[in-house]
Each structure stands twice: as structure tokens, then as C-alpha cells.
Amino acid sequence: MKKWISVALISSSLLLAGCQSAYYGAMEKVGYHKRDIMVDRVQDAKESQEEAQEQFSSALEEMQALLAFDGGDLEAAYNKAKDEYESAQSAADDVSSRIGKVEDVAEALFDEWETEIQEISKASLRRNSTNKLNETKRSYNSLVKSMRRAESKMPPILTAMKDNMLYLKHNLNAQAIGAIKGEFASLQTDISSLIKEMNKSIAESNKFIESMEGKGS
């Protein structure tokens, strides 16, 4: 327990300082290596994508409820849809941030790995470690491409949602709702495509975590 308290304290203080290299060095001193950090960050990125899936689905549901509005408090329905849009935006920002953190620790890990390989004097061991490094890099590159591909689908959806929310804000009436109904089918298709891409990325994350937990550098 004391070890993990120390890890949490070091993590929070050094991340606030914004010095990643010092952060990695300090974490290693308490037995928490770059590989461990990478696995945790991939897990965090995966969980942020799962949260984004839920938020985008919720935003779509609230927009659907708004477009199907038939009497009652129109402004309340609009506000619910707007809140869900803003939550989706926040979730998308978190996904991007988490992916960036994965990329940061991956670069540090691979640089360290390559440097340490040069310090291995026995050729067979050096070759074996190089093969493991290349295998991990291939798996990592596939993972990040999948994450970034899913991430790239979010901005256009958010832009369409924002356009609709702003239009309705300025024209909150049944006629305005009717004017944007034509765009809804496209939005449904785009969110469905986003969720499929995120599912692929989540599967890649699970595979990568399993591979990292089953091998050592």
C-alpha cells in the first residue's frame, strides 16, 4: 500500500511540473517501469474510448428525442441535447489526451530499449531483444493507427452536432426542428461508424495489453 501511495504522490507532483523524463525516472525508482506505465496508459485510453462511445450514443438519443418533440417543454429538451453534446465533446478531448500520453511513454520506452540493446555484449541475446522490440513496435503501431482512425471520426460528428445545437438555439421552434431532420440520418450513420471503429481499437488495446503483460524487454 505504501508503495502505491508513493507512486501516486510522485505521479501527481511530477506531472504537474510537466517533466515527463523526470517523471519516468522517479517512477522507476519505486519499481514502476515504462512498460508498466505504457500498459496503464493504453488501458486508460481504452476506457476513455468506451466512455466516448456511451457519450456519443447518449447525445444521439437526446437529439433523436428533440427531433421527435411533440408538445411539452421544448427548451428543456434542447438543454438535455446540448448537455449531451458537450459531454461528447469532453469525452472526445479525453480520448485525444489519453492517446497522446500513450505515444509519449511509447517513445520513451522504445528509446530506452534501443539504448539498452547496445549494452548487451552477447550477440544472441542482443538479437533476441531486438526481435522483441521490433515485434512490440509493430503491435504498438497497429494499435495507435487504430486509435487515431477512430479519433478522426469524432470531430466531423461534433461539428455537425454543434451546428445543429447553435441553429436550434437561435430558432427554438418546431419549424427549426423540422429543418435539421434531414441531417439526422447522416449523423446516425456517422456515429454508428465511429462506434464500430472504436470497438476495433478497443480490441486492439486488449490484444496489446495482453502481449505487453506476457513479455519482458
From TrEMBL:
It comes from the Bacteria. Residues 35-98 form a coiled coil. Keywords: Coiled coil, Signal. InterPro entries: DUF2959. The keyword Coiled coil applies. Residues 1-22 form the signal peptide. This is DUF2959 domain-containing protein. It comes from Shewanella maritima. The lineage of its organism: Bacteria, Pseudomonadati, Pseudomonadota, Gammaproteobacteria, Alteromonadales.
